[in-house]
Write a structure and sequence with these properties.
The chain is mainly α. The protein folds into two domains: 31-247, SGNH hydrolase (Rossmann fold, 3-Layer(aba) Sandwich); 262-422, no CATH class. It is 41% helix and 6% strand. The protein has helices spanning 9-22, 44-47, 59-69, 87-92, 97-102, 115-119, 136-157, 181-200, 209-212, 230-247, 262-269, 290-301, 323-331, 349-360, 382-389, 410-422; strands at residues 36-42, 73-77, 108-112, 162-166, 204-206. It has a five-stranded parallel beta sheet, sandwiched between helices. α14 (349-360) packs parallel to α16 (410-422). The longest helix has 22 residues, at 136-157.
């Protein structure tokens, strides 16, 4: 499956709040290049059918609301989702002239299709709904083909669109326990077939069966209807958001889950701001250069940082790849002005403490005082080191030392920067 890098929403909200205080950006400077343009296709679940035959907020509305809260949403519509649509009708809806015009600029599509292929063939019996086992293979094969064709067609309109196919919950929680097993088995087979179709066509699958379980009367309150209430739709939306964020997670082979800075590295990686080598590795224990640190800070604070006044470093010409970042950070006081910047030089741990504290304008926690054996009272970086230590962002080694002159590693800057931003 195609891997995508997307901003981690939790950290993004933190950054947006931080930027609003530290780096106000005018309306003219903002762009929508990373904004989500979302179209929900399919049946009554995307349309928002209620358990009592009305139309209200469905799972796609709650997904859009979540993105809007995180300031990620540009546009959203579910007007092409129609209650009762089968997988074939969902596929045919792609011929709608308005939708054909919209899809080339859409970067996120969700599809809920296939349930009506099954529901329309269920027969009511005294033992509950059932389906002719002779018909089932053909129904599933047709449904799979239609779902795959729908995804393929969307990608023809827009190869970069991310497509998520929603799974289905168990729709008959009000049946007697002895009536459920065959339908539970059918539901699981049905979901597995949808998942296979999605993956084969290059889309993502969102499982919701386990989130509902087989006794979700609280989400499906009407015994005579298969549609969830708002709380049920919220569960579906939450499962989508979980899958969406999981699929955006970047992984480095040299950063195992047991690494002390794993969470911080992965969260910053989701922002696509970390310096990554050509081999696709992070090299967490390698030292970071002053230029790399400037790029990382500038990208986190403002990815579209302007080229401000030349800071005057003789070794950082305007053609240097890190020039905009170094110029910007120097002009707002993160780096000190001098004759030389030494861009390829290693950033020390003391220097790291300074630039993170100054960039984020973090103030020391007055209730906590931490003393390091190798940071004297007159050390030039003591106030910055003490500030980070007062929040537990940095800690001494077993000998109570900070090692201020030691080169900072890529893992250390990721850990310190992320923890500082989380405050």
């Amino acid at each position: 499956m195609k891997a995508f890098v997307r901003k981690s929403s939790a950290l993004l909200v933190t950054l947006l709040m931080f930027l609003a205080v530290v780096l106000p950006v005018s309306a003219e400077e903002t762009t929508k290049t990373d904004q989500i343009r979302y179209v929900a296709l399919g049946d009554s679940l995307a349309a928002g059918m209620t358990p009592y035959k009305g139309i209200d907020d469905g799972y796609s509305d709650f997904i859009a609301a979540q993105f809007k809260t995180e300031e990620l949403l540009d546009t959203y519509t579910n007007e092409f989702a129609v209650p009762g649509y089968t997988s074939k009708q969902t596929l045919d809806s792609l011929e709608n002239a308005k939708l054909k015009e919209l899809l080339p600029t859409t970067n996120l599509v969700t599809i809920s299709a296939g349930a009506n292929d099954i529901l329309s063939n269920l027969q009511k019996t005294e033992n509950g709904p059932t389906i002719d086992p002779k018909l089932l293979p053909g129904i599933l094969a047709t449904m799979q083909a239609n779902v795959k064709s729908t995804i393929t067609k969307i990608h023809e309109y827009n190869p970069e669109a991310e497509v998520y196919v929603m799974g289905y919950y168990f729709a008959f929680p009000h049946l007697l326990d002895q009536q459920k097993p065959e339908l539970v088995k059918l539901s699981k087979i049905f979901n597995s077939q949808i998942e296979a179709a999605a993956v084969d066509a290059g889309a993502y699958f969102v499982p919701v069966f386990d989130a509902f379980g087989t006794d979700a009367k609280n989400y499906l309150p009407n015994p005579t209807d298969v549609h969830p209430n708002k709380e049920g739709y919220k569960v579906m939306a939450a499962e989508f958001i979980k899958a969406y964020k999981a699929d955006k997670t970047v992984s480095f082979k040299d950063v195992p889950e047991t690494h002390y800075a794993y969470n911080e590295i992965m969260n910053l990686a989701a922002l696509d701001v970390l310096p990554v080598s050509e081999d696709g590795l992070f090299h967490p224990e390698s030292s970071i250069t002053r230029a790399e640190a400037a790029l990382l800070l500038a990208n986190v604070l403002d990815p579209t940082v302007p080229q401000l006044q030349d800071p005057g470093f003789k070794d950082v010409p305007a053609a240097h790849p890190a020039y905009p970042a170094i110029a910007h950070l120097t002009n707002i006081g993160v780096f000190s002005k001098a004759e030389y910047f030494n861009p390829t030089g290693e950033l020390t741990r003391a220097q790291l403490a300074k630039i993170v504290v100054k960039a984020t304008q973090l103030k020391k926690n007055p209730a906590v005082n931490v003393a390091f054996a190798d940071v004297r009272a007159d050390h030039w970086a003591k106030e910055y080191i003490d500030t980070l230590a007062s929040y537990g962002i940095v800690k001494g080694n077993t000998h109570g030392q900070f090692k201020p002159t030691q080169p900072a590693t890529k893992a250390q800057i990721a850990l310190i920067l992320y923890r500082t931003l989380e405050l």
